Amino acid sequence: MLAKPRTLVLQKRLFRLKSFNTHTNRASKFIVHCNSQITKHGRNGNLKEAESFFSRMPHKNVISWTAILTAYYENGHIAKAREMFDKMPQKTTASYNAMITAYTRSKPMMMREASKLFAEMTERNSVSYATMITGLARAGMMDNAEELYLETPLEWRDPVCSNALISGHLKVGRLEEAIRIFEGMVKRDVVSWSSMIDGYCKKEKIDHARELFEKMPERNVVTWTAMIDGHMKMGCYEVGFGLFLRMRNEAFVQVNSMMLTVMFEACGELGKYKEGIQMHGLVSRVGFQFDVFLGNAVITMYSRFGFVDEARKIFDMMTKKDVVSWNSLIACYVQNDEVEDAYVLFEKTPKKDVISWTTMITGFSSKGKMGKSIELFRMMPKQDDIAWTAVISGFVGNMEYEEAIYWFIEMVRKMVRPNPLTLSTVLSASAGLATLKQGLLIHTLVLKMGMEFDLSIQNSLVSMYTKCGNVADGHQIFMSIKSPNIVSFNTMITGFAQNGFGEEALELFHKMLNEGQKPNQITFLGVLSACTHAGLLEQGWNHFRSMQSLYQIDPGPHHYACMVDLLGRAGFLDDAIDLIHSMPCEPHSGIWGALLGASGMHLRLDVAKLAAQQLLELEPDNAASYAVLSYLYSSAGRKSDSEKLRMAQRLKGVKKSPGCSWIIV
Q1: Could you give the C-alpha distances from 552 to 38, 236, 516, 519, in angstroms and in order?
Q2: Three-class SS of residue 562?
Q3: Distance (Å, rounded) from C-alpha 497 to C-alpha 505?
Q4: Beta strands in 347-423 (DSSP E)
Q5: Is the dihedral of CA 253, 256, 258, 264 positive or negative?
Q6: Is the model's pLDDT at 288 over the cut of 90?
């Protein structure tokens, strides 16, 4: 009889236990659900939803507190995240790691708070050390990061902590230190290799990067992108394209938006429109959506090709656009001389930034509409140094040098700090006016601002001094440049040539070649001009012929003008005529003007007639043709012909422009 009651008691206990477990399971599932919702809404920026789920939870575990803490810092509320951390009834290593992560991803000054929390931790794991080292490296505190790295247990260093330290060293340009860490690693992953390859590429050590790339046991899309981008930025476009094709053929790597962006940028910079169109076709075949970054890159590429309609189609296809998208298409219109269409789009732009405004200012100034540029400038919510520079540059581009200097003075009065481009531009204005006094004042300002070692400013100073006739100071500035580029050499060679120092110009040209610099069209203009002023006919011919034979540079009309002038001055007028007839393009007025001047110098009436006839067809109001012919007729004793020519000049109303000169008072 006692068995029944015992059985009933046991059944009741089992029922209660089952009910408790069911309730516990439900509560546990609810907590898991809420935790996942807090995480999801936090990542999506829906902080109020995350807070709502957290506040409705009757029971919270450590994961709940950590999730809401993370949601706060991911949305920029560091103080609120710390408040949650302090309220946590129980803290784990994961909680500490989350709060330390919040500090390391905030401002560098927050690293002090992160360090305090790290010191408080009773238990640390590999994530704790990796997070702190990453934060210190991001803040540029590399000595502290190195110190902590040495304290990290050996089994936790590789690869995460080592990768963080490598990334930090590369960020501040310490390639040798990064190499030291990399070579000391026992275990490397694809991030380790990719970081080093990217570091080598950024230091332009492309051969070292390629060597490392070929040794990699495994490559991902980041590695391929770093390697291809490195070659592209070094100007090795063919190798970069070859690597992309190799990746497509031999690697099981999924092309991503970043990789395609690199390729589109390279196609645009190199002018490879066929390859660019093929890349666009690949995007369509693979089914890529034109996200913001990719869409912007394609717009820029088509802009460089001059394909405005294609750029507009991509723009219209993009479901999401940022300010860069609008600016890219505005710039496309401006660069292709469709300024009015650019302005229509500019007015529709929902959110304009300084680039939007300055692009339009530059566009109107390129059309000579400085009034409209100034109107837009005054409408800007805030005029920064970039906007001021755009206006000053516009005046310089339109050869309104006095206005450029006036606006520069206004900029300084408004307490807007000039940038290197501003100073280079206003120095160009001083050079255009040949106002040495003004140039000296700007040079003084450059010294006060500590910008005397900026290469663009140094080049502009060389140009300003030489154009003002002060070759000695120009050469002194040139000699102070640590690593002169092609612009530096061209400026100094041209400065020597324009001031009659032909031998010095040619000597500098040979020095440039010995240093491995490749000459361009501007270089040869300076060299041929130097030969002309120094009367070096044979050298001039040699340099002219070498343009195509040695450097694959097609001579332009200005190079032919220099050669005609050189041959004419030396008395080889027939050779000059033969050279003109051999030109692949129509000779401009400067070429016929050079021939006309030489014919007057050597009393060649027949050549003068030919040159004057051609010159009058191009410039009917050019009085020089009448003057030289009249002089030659008189010299040949044909005074009646000279009188007839002067009569024809008066009847046509052609007047000689009066000479002028100026001084700065």
Answers
A1: 65, 18, 16, 10
A2: helix
A3: 6
A4: none
A5: positive
A6: no
Expressed in angstroms, the distance from the first to the final Cα of the chain is: 130
CA 267 from centre of chain:
16
**Residue of 138, 115, 130, 132 whose CA lies nearest to 162:** 130
pTM over 0.70: no
- 492 and 508 Cβ atoms separated by less than 8 Å: yes
Query: Helix (H, G, I), strand (E, B), or coil: what is residue 637?
Result: coil
The sign of the dihedral angle between the CA atoms of 92, 94, 97, 102 is: negative
Give 237's contacts (C-beta < 8 A, 6+ positions apart): 231, 266, 269, 270, 272
- Record the tokens describing residue 320, joined without a space: 């999401």
Burial group, residue 116, by CB count within 10 angstroms (0-12, 13-18, 19+): exposed
Q: Alpha carbon of 551 to those of 238, 547, 562: distances in Å?
A: 19, 5, 19
Contacts 24+ apart (CB under 8 A), 10-16: none
3-state DSSP assignment of residue 419: coil
| Mean pLDDT score across all residues of the chain | 85
C-alpha 243/C-alpha 240 separation (Å) is 5
When mean pLDDT is compared across 143-152, 237-246, 322-331, 345-354, the lowest value belongs to 237-246
